[in-house]
Amino acid sequence: EIDRLAEDGHYETQERLMTRIAQACVAYPDILSIDIRLRKAPVRRGNGVLGVRLSLNQAATQDLRHSLKNPR
Questions:
Q1: What's residue 24's pLDDT?
Q2: What average pLDDT does this structure show over 32-47?
């Protein structure tokens, strides 16, 4: 599923891809917490590195799971 999301097309931001990956992860009850790290290189003019990280502890993962099952 993660590979499919990554190949799903261009994402305007790394954060959007991370959001979709986290949403895919919570579909599996065995996943209790989530830690996602993405790096992009080169960033500008052939050099530089940009990285972002998303960490959800057990409570935050459960909250995301609940919010996707019960949208407001």
A1: 96
A2: 92
